[in-house]
Amino acid sequence: MKKILALVLVLILVIGVLYWLGLPSLTIENNAIGVIHTKTSGYELITEKHRNKWDIRKILPHNYTVLSIPNHYYIAPISVTTELRQSSVLLELLNIEIPSKEFFQFSIHGEVNFRLKHDKIIPFLEKNLFQPHSIDIFYNEEGQRINAFLVQNFTNLQVDAVQYLYQHKLLDLLKAEFPHLEFQHVKITSFKLPDIDLYRMTQQRIQEQSDYQQKQNYDLTNLQQELFLEQERDNIKFRHTLEKLEEIGKVLTTYPILLAYLALEKNHPIDDPFVAPFIELHATLDSENNKEME
Questions:
Q1: Which domain of life is it from (predicted)?
Q2: What is the CA radius of gyration of the chain?
Q3: 212-226 pLDDT, tens per residue?
C-alpha cells in the first residue's frame, strides 16, 4: 500500500513539474510586441490565448523562446535637394552662371515617424528581413529607402507636384510606396521652391525653338524633294533626246546621202521635215527585220 501511495505521489509530482514547465513565462518588455518562437512551429504573435495556457512545446529543451519586438515609432530624417528637369539646358539658354542654378532648385528637410505594421512582423521574421534584437538597423535602412524614394520622386518633379509639401499629401505618397509601414506623421522643418515663372518661361522658349527647328527641317525636306523631282524630269528629258539622236545616227548610217544633203543645207536642222520620212522608214524597216529574225 505504501508503494502504491509513493508511486501516486511521484506521479503527481511529475505531472506538476511538467505542468509547471509547460506554463509559458510571457515576460515582455514595456512598449514591445511579444512573439513566440519555437523550432517546431515557427513564429507567432503573443495574444491573450497564450497567457496562463499550458503549452506542450515549452517542455522540449531549447525549443520555446519569447521575443520582445520594440513597438516604438522610429524617427528618420528627410533631406532632399534636387533640381527641376532640364535645369542645365534652361540655365545655358538664359546664360545664367552655374552658382545661380538655385533658381531651379527644390529642397525639403524634415522628419518622418514610422514603424512596422503588427500584421507584417511575423512575415518579415519568417523571411529573415530583420532580427528582433536589432530592429533599429532595419528601421535605419527603411529610413534611407524613404529618403532615396523622395529624392527620386522630386528629381522627376512636375510643377504641380509641389502639392506634396502638404503633410497629408506626402503621407499618402509614402503609404502607397511602403504599405508594410505604419506612418505616424511627417514633419517639414524647411523647404525651398524653385522659380516656377522663370521655369515656365524658359520651357516655353525651348519649345518655341524646337518648333522653329522642326519647321526648318520640314522646309528643307520639301526643298530636297522638289530638287529631286526636277532632276528626275531633266533626266527623263535627256534620255528622250539621247534616244532621238541615236535613232538619227542609225538613219544617217543607213542613208549616207543625207549627210551630203545636210552638208549642202547647213541651215536645215537635223530634224528637218525632209529627214523625218527617212527616220520613219528606218523605224519601219527595223521593225520588219526584227519580226523576220524572230
A1: Bacteria
A2: 48
A3: 788 777 777 877 888
